[in-house]
Amino acid sequence: MGQIKTQKRNKLTSTKVSFSTQHEHPIFCLKYLDRKYYSLSICTKEEKAAFADTLDRLSQLTWAEISKSSRHGLGYEKIARNNIRATIPKHVEDDVIFIAFRFYGKAPMVGYRNDAIFHILWIDRDFTLYQHS
Hints:
Layout: E1 2-8, E2 11-17, E3 27-29, H1 45-59, H2 63-67, E4 76-79, E5 98-104, E6 107-114, E7 117-123
Parallel strand pairs: 3-7
Antiparallel strand pairs: 1-2, 4-5, 5-6, 6-7
């Protein structure tokens, strides 16, 4: 939500304004990454390079462009919450939709989107996070 400040009789007030982030470029956050079982530290050099390359390529697109892409290309697929085998962080609300981007072949990074920010929770290099079809 954006905020517009208005002045009324020498008082500043804030009004929340809703706006779409579909035309913004994604911002990637690793703050909540599972550093025990699904982290970058267990990835090979090639996987780490592919991860960085994927983030670079995705950051050049808008969310609208990404949503039109193939799920095995630069697009994503939705993952049902009940399919996640790892512990879901406590801060993640029940209504959050998990999405997976491919970064190394079909190996996914999984997280959730909050406005323009994609919070990466798991790097599933060994395909154990959820049942892959």
